[in-house]
Structure formats: structure tokens, C-alpha cells
Amino acid sequence: MKLTWYSKLKGLILVCLLVIAALMLRAIGVDEYCFTYIVKYRQIFAQFTGQQYLLSVAVYMGLFAIAIASSLPLSVPFTLLGTFLFGLFPGLLYVNIAGTIGATGAFLIARYLMKEWAEKTYLVAFEKFNSELAAYGPLYLLVLHLFPVTPFFVLNIIAGLTNLSLWTFIWTTSIGMIPTSCVYGIIGLKLATIGCLKDILSPEIIIAFITLKIIALLGFLYFRFRDKLMI
Known about the structure:
0% strand
């Protein structure tokens, strides 16, 4: 059964409120608050994980997925906590699965509650984005996952408003998360010695992030000007 205009309007208002709330929470530093809470109770979390491993994994992944689906800026604290509690490779696996599920939730919310309205309101912009996706393929979206000016939650919503298939979004999101998650995951192994978010910005980590962004920028420029380069 198709959604009525009234239902779509309510859905649009809900999504807009979620986005505004996410931006406000990002502005007031909710990620810093969450990180401080994690650091304060990290030993309690670790002890509980040792006693109830499967339950800890389920709760962790559930909360992480909900946070991403709600566009909350909590991916960094959750990633750090994941590898601290579960180890590097299991932690990164849980981060990837939960993050992909949460991103898919945001994608579906945008697609089914906002797509028709966005296409009518911003027809030219979405026609251009859809044509670029068709021309450059899924690798274009992979580059956007790492591109410096594209926040994760914004990309999830924009992708939901395009003609991108759900499966393509899922696998490009999963793969696109890996590089940044690995950097934060390695930091999470040292969470016992970290006091605040600023402590994670060591020279090595800064260099790693700059390298990722440069690679992403080069990839973006390649896709943007590929036709001209091949002439």
C-alpha cells in the first residue's frame, strides 16, 4: 500500500528532525561526552564482556546500529570500544556489521520517506548524482565514503535519495568503512591508556588519516576527470 501524502509529510518531518538533532548533538560534542563515559566505565564494560561475551556483542552491535541509523555522531567512540572489548579482528568485524546495518537503516528511511519529495524539489541535483553513479559505477560511492567533505550520515541519506540499488549501497558501505575503522580500531587497543578524544591524535594517526584522505581525493579526481585524462 502506497504512503499517503500525509504519511510522507510526517515521515519527512521525522527525518528532518533526526538530521537537525544529529547536527545539534555533533555541535555540542556528544561524541566527547560518550567517549568520556566509555573511558570512565571501561573496566566495568571489559569485566561484563568477559562474563557475558555473546550478550555483550549483541548489545554493542545493537546500540551501534541504532546510533548510526539515527545519524548520531558516535561511530568513533563505538569503534574504539569495540576493539578494546573484543580484540582487533573480532572488534572490527562487529563494527563493520553493525555500522553497515545502521547505515542501511538510514538509507531505507531516506528512500521510503524522503525520496519522492527530494526528487521533485532538487530534481537537477539528483539527476546529476544519478548520472555520475551510472557513469562511474559503485567505485564512485566507495571514494565518497572516504572523501573529506562527506560526513558518513549525510552520505547514507543522500544515497537513499538516489536510484542506487540497496545491495550496491550495502557492499560499498561495508568495504568503504574498512580503512577508517582499522585506524580507529588500532587506537582502541590502547583505550586503557587514553584519557580523552584528543589523546588519540598522535602524529602517526594524523599521518594515517591524511594519507587516507589524499588517496580518496585522488580517487575522486580520477573519476571526475577520467574521460579527459583518457583523451
